[in-house]
Structures are given as structure tokens and as C-alpha cells.
Amino acid sequence: MNARQAALKLLSDVLRKRRPLEHAVGLDPRDAGFAFALASETLRRFGQLDALLRAFTSKLPPPHKAGPAIEIMLMGACELLFLGTAPHAAVDGANRLAQADNKAVHFKPLINAVLRRISREGAEAIAAQDAARLNTPDWLWTRWCAAYGEPRARDIALAHLHQAPLDLVWKTPPAEPLFGNVQRMEPQRVEALPGFADGKFWVQDAAATLPAHLLADVRGKRVLDLCAAPGGKTAQLAARGAFVTAVERDGTRMARLKENLARLKLDATLVEADLRDADVEPAPLVLLDAPCTATGTIRRHPELPWIKSASDVMLVAGMSAELLDRAAELTAPGGLLVFAVCSLEPEEGPEQVAQFLEARPEFSREPLAASDVFDRAEFVDANGDLRTLPCHLKEQGGMDGFYAARLRRHERPSP
Predict the structure, then answer these.
(1) Which residues lie below 8 Å from residue 315, measured CB to CB, with a gap of 6+?
(2) How far is the C-alpha of 111 from the C-alpha of 403, rounded, in Å?
(3) Do residues 7 and 24 lie in contact, with contact meaning Cβ atoms separated by under 8 Å?
(4) What is the 3-state secondary structure (H, E, C) of the chain?
(5) What confidence category does residue 30 fall into, taking pLDDT thresholds of 50, 70 and 90?
(6) pLDDT in tens, 104-143
(7) What are the residues facing 363 on neighbouring strands?
(8) What Rg value do the Cα atoms of the chain yield, rounded?
(9) Phi, psi of 201 (to 5 degrees)
(10) Which of 91, 131, 226, 402 could form a Cys-Cys staple with 288, CB 3.0–4.6 A?
């Protein structure tokens, strides 16, 4: 019950307060793991579960009167249909949650009846649903159809129905890499894996490792890693022999970056400051992983479609443009600037770069070849930029959606 109560709080915080999904705290690891799995899978399948409840009830109870009754039914349905919980345990767990809430308790008969019906008829109803469409809110579906076409939008949405695998980046090449130094395995407790305490690897999605590779050979060269936390790219660059200056404005995230580097026994110069005001010298190599809506990471953050909106895209794109301008100033003449975002939205990626190049004639795009991304030609778009999608590497478990462009600053301004 402690785990289910924690899951209920996590789910309610997302759906009612639009807060990011966080791991449960104050529970033993097993209960915390179940709580997070239940909340995250309910969000991953939220569209389907919501449609099912509406089909199986004449009218959902009003939240201001029913408290968390709807969330309780959503979680119970998720347990029954997607987590494989025994029907009696799932229904009993939901009833106990309702009993413990002074508003939901009045809707306990409804909760019990709906979940018992779902235990009998739910699997057939779910099988008939359009999972990709239902689990993608309108604001994202229309955008992705416009940007990628409906078939590819559907592939992206289907990829989001699966939990992301665990990607580890090793300081030395693993025996069977996915590509580069990336090893892929099933999700599990990272701290318990051999080599973690010894600093032999760090966690980083395979797609997130690619932008740093676009800087090519960094050994012995100065590199600025801007908006650096949580530090995967800093670690990549330092492990490859670069002299890295990592800039990050968030003190908590910077502390985590410092801890990670200490565990990995890697060195970098750390600057805690807003990039727009940071006092750092220009460098020949600059990597900006800009803030974004992170819609390329929905497999890892299934709450994102339900707590963000199209207005967030425009808001973040404006901030990103400021940071890209500052990154340009910090790129030495003749140097290379890699701009990256973990977003699927055109305004945050290719449109951002197009506007930048129009305003900055001293920069030009340096197109990628397949050899720049481990001969994965599908990762290179028509402009020669990096574009990975969650449906790439489908047979191996997918990957995050990432965009990156390689921009060369000329020695002298173009005529």
C-alpha cells in the first residue's frame, strides 16, 4: 500500500499540478521502484486508459468531489492491463486507496465496479484501440505529422510505448558496443553494476552521445561544454583527452556534475554561471546542448506530453536563440560550434539553426557524413544535420530524439 500511495501522489502531481514525474522517496528500493513503474506506465498509457474509463462509465466523477478517484481507477486499470498484476490484488489495492481518502471513499463502489469490469473486458477493448494516437495528445500529433508525415509520426508514438533501455558509456570500449563506447542493457539499478563505484562508466542515452562526436578529434584541445549538466558530454570530452570547461547555471545540477566527474576520475574546469553572463574565454571547439522541451525523451519521461504544450515550444525556442548567439561569441575564428537539442520540434532545431545562419554570415553549416555518426546514414537529415528519432534502432530498443548541427566560424567574415 505504501508503494501504491506513493504512485498515486506522483500521478496526481503530474496530472493536477503539471509537475515533472519524480522518483518516490522515503521507501525501500523495491517499493520505490514499483511506485515509479506504476506511475510512469500509467502516464505512458494515459490516453488509452482515459478512453477506456470513459467507455466503461456513463460519466466520470468530478475531481473536486471525488478527490483522486479517477487516478485510482487509472492506476488500477494500468495494473490489470499493462503490469500483469493479479486482478484481486489490483482491485483490492485500488479499494484500499479509495478507503484512505475522505473524498474518494464515497466513490468506492464505482471504482470497484469499473475495475472488475476492466478485469473481464479490458484486454479486448485495449486491443481494439489506436494506441499510438490515443497516447499522443493533439498538440504533439499534429506537429509531428506536419514535420515528419503521419507514418513516421505513428512510428515515433509507438516507440514511446516502450520503456527506454539502459545505455552505459564506458571509458574504454565495451566488448559488444551498440556504437562507439555505448553498451545497452535492460533497465536496472545502475549503482549495483560492476564498475560503477570504480568510475568505469556513466549513464547516457545513445543518441545523447552523438553531438560530442561531431567535434571529431578533441585530444589536447580546449572545448567549451555549455549548459553542461548532468555531465555526460563533459565526461565524453574529458575521457577523450580534451581540456574541457563546463558551464552550468544550476547549482544543484552542477554539484551532480562534479560528483559524477569525481567518481569517473575525470577532470574539467567547472564554471557555475548563466551562459549569457559567464566569464569564459572563446575556444576552438564549442558544444551547446541547449534547454528545450525535451520531446525527444518521452520514452524516459512519459509525463512530458501531458505537462507541456505548444506554447512551451515557442517560449523555450526564444531562450535557446539567446544562448546560441552567446555560444557563437565564444567560438574562436576558424572554430567549430555544435548546437544540439533533445527535442523533436522543428522550431527548436532546424528552424533555430536556419535563423541563426541567416543572421550570422560568419558561420556556415558543415554537413555531416554517415561516417561522422558511425555509418548510420539514417541519423543524417537532408540538410546534413544530425536527426535521431525514438523509432530509430527499433530492433535494439529505440533511442532518444536528438537534433544537432555543426557550424563552422570562418576565419574572416564572408564577403
Answers:
(1) none
(2) 44
(3) yes
(4) CHHHHHHHHHHHHHHHHCCCCCCCCCCCHHHHHHHHHHHHHHHHCHHHHHHHHHHHCCCCCCHHHHCCHHHHHHHHHHHHHCCCCCHHHHHHHHHHHHHCCCCHHHHHHHHHHHHHHHHHHHHHHHHCCCHHHHCCCHHHHHHHHHHHCHHHHHHHHHHCCCCCCEEEEECCCCCCCCECCEEEECCCCHHHCCCCCCCCEEECCCHHHHHHHCCCCCCCCEEEEECCCCCHHHHHHHHCCCEEEEEECCHHHHHHHHHHHHHHCCCCEEEECCCCCCCCCCEEEEEEECCCCCHHHCCCCCCHHHHCCHHHHHHHHHHHHHHHHHHHHCEEEEEEEEEEECCCCHHHCHHHHHHHHHHCCCEEECCCCHHHHCCCHHHECCCCCEEECCCCCHHHCCCCCEEEEEEEECCCCCC
(5) confident
(6) 999 999 999 999 999 999 999 999 999 999 999 999 999 9
(7) 409
(8) 23
(9) -155, 170
(10) 226
Within the chain, which residue ranges are assigned CATH 3.40.50.150?
Answer: 166-409
Q: Let me know the angle formed at the C-alpha of 399 by 295 and 199, rounded to the nearest 5 degrees.
A: 105
pLDDT tens, 281-301? 999 999 999 999 999 999 999
Residue 31 has which C-alpha cell? 517499493
CATH 1.10.940.10-classified regions of the chain: 2-129
Record the pTM: 0.95
C-alpha grid cell, residue 361: 554570415
- What is the fold of 166-409? Rossmann fold (3.40.50)
> Cell 532518444, residue?
400
| Residue 313, C-alpha cell as written in the block | 515550444
Catalytic position from the list 78, 227, 292, 342? 342
- Report the C-alpha gap between 278 and 254 in whole angstroms: 14
Return the amino acid letter for 229. A
> Quick check: is 342 catalytic?
yes
Q: Rounded to an integer, what distance in angstroms lies between the CA atom of residue 74 and that of residue 36? A: 15
Q: Whole-angstrom Cα distance, residue 182 to residue 212? A: 13
Q: Tell me which amino acid residue 143 is.
A: R
Q: What is the pLDDT of residue 411?
A: 84
How many other C-beta atoms can be found within 10 angstroms of the C-beta atom of residue 321? 17
Q: Which residue has the cell 500483469?
A: 84
CB atoms within 10 A of CB 127: 9
The fold for domain 2-129 equals N-utilizing Substance Protein B Homolog; Chain A (1.10.940)
CA distances (Å), 47 to each of 66, 129, 130, 132, 367, in order? 20, 10, 10, 9, 39
